[in-house]
Design goal:
It contains 15 helices and no strands. It has 380 residues and is mostly helical.
């Protein structure tokens, strides 16, 4: 089990690192390619758009060839597109590389989390997912730092190193024992979409992604407007990821001990406050502090939402590979919509409007969650 936990953590670490590497580079690409806020949003949304396209195929492939082959295929795509992104000289190639990497990410995450949940006890599921998410957040912590390095040392060598790390993790996956493939027809997904608890889990995966997508587009541009450089912007998101890495496993353990809905309610309430505060700071230091605290609040939802998703899938007899494929299907539109729509709304109105809309959505979700949940479910 320890080997699988380590492997899962390594897979999500590498993927999250390259996903987060773009954040401090956004102002650089905006200047180099003369991008508007909407254009920056498209670049940021290309990755989650790829995850969306790859979500259902990742579940289908994992059911047919198993989690090992699916993970190796996803990591191979991540490695190849890392090199392409580092050497790309046009905005369309940058967008395309991020899109294809998102497809690889969907395969890697579906396989790795299915692999993990298959070998851990349901009673500790929240804590183990929280631990994996904590490692992923450490990858996201290093991503902005890596982006800051790339802005100084060049993207070609930096992203080639990232590709080499992905290849090493793929080799580790090949050498690790995995459960047998368990194919299940696509039609079984109809059962999933009719289950209220599973649908709730999917929304609570999409909501923090929506918050993150908006934050990672608007906050770097606002910081840049205050005269903050790429390295300093990266340091803000490094600090945010460090706090998220501490919060994620704590949230998972809280979900195991007090129930999934209790932990999720805490996260949604904190996210409502964080989103409402983000538009108001008028200096780089205060905005950076607000971004760190808000990001930590958003991260509290991941572990309990994924644990609730796995619980619901097992209760209705849905294969775990399909459950985590649906996780990608929920996360990707939230991240893409947050990045693209958040940038577009901010350009048409102001940076305040998208964040206040998101805060209101969090408040409505909290009231709906308290009404729908009833007694807080325990692990199955």
């Amino acid at each position: 089990m320890r080997r699988v936990v380590f492997l899962t953590s390594a897979i999500v670490f590498v993927d999250a690192m390259f996903f987060a590497v773009l954040t401090p580079l956004l102002p650089h690409y905006a200047r180099e390619h003369d991008l508007t806020k909407a254009g920056v949003g498209v670049l940021a949304a290309a990755y989650p758009a790829g995850v969306l396209v790859g979500a259902i195929p990742s579940g289908w492939v994992a059911g047919r060839i198993g989690v090992k082959g699916t993970a190796v295929g996803g990591l191979t795509l991540v490695a190849a597109t890392s090199i392409v992104f580092g050497f790309a000289g046009s905005i369309w190639l940058l967008d395309l590389a991020r899109f294809v990497q998102g497809i690889g990410s969907a395969f890697a995450w579906t396989a790795s989390l299915t692999w993990l949940v298959a070998v851990v006890s349901p009673a500790t599921r929240g804590a183990m997912i929280g631990r994996a998410m904590s490692v992923a957040i450490v990858g996201a912590l290093l991503g902005p730092a890596l982006g800051g390095i790339a802005s100084l040392a060049g993207t070609r060598g930096t992203f080639t190193v990232v590709a080499a790390v992905a290849v090493c993790v793929a080799v580790l996956a090949v050498r690790t024992d995995a459960p047998q493939a368990s194919p299940e027809p696509l039609g079984r997904l109809r059962v999933a979409f009719r289950d209220r608890t599973l649908a709730t889990a999917l929304w609570l995966i999409a909501l923090p992604a929506l918050l993150y997508g908006t934050t990672t587009v608007i906050v770097p541009l606002r910081l840049s407007g205050f005269g903050t450089g790429a390295a300093a912007i990266g340091s803000v998101f490094v600090a945010a990821a460090a706090l998220e890495a501490v919060a994620a496993p704590l949230s998972g353990r809280l979900a195991d001990r007090r129930g999934r809905y209790y932990a999720l309610s805490v996260s949604v309430a904190a996210s409502a406050v964080g989103a409402a505060v983000l538009p108001w700071p008028e200096g780089a230091a205060l905005l950076g502090l607000a971004a760190v605290l808000a990001s930590a609040a958003f991260a509290l939802a991941w572990a309990p939402a994924m644990a609730l998703l796995a619980d619901s899938a097992q209760r209705i007899g849905l294969e775990l590979a399909w459950a985590f494929a649906l996780m990608n299907l929920a996360w990707a539109p939230g991240q893409a919509l947050g990045a693209a729509a958040g940038g577009t709304i901010a350009k048409a109105t102001s940076d305040t409007v998208p964040f206040l809309i998101l805060s209101g959505i969090c408040v409505l979700t909290l009231f709906a969650l308290r009404r729908l949940a009833g007694p807080s479910p325990r692990p199955v």
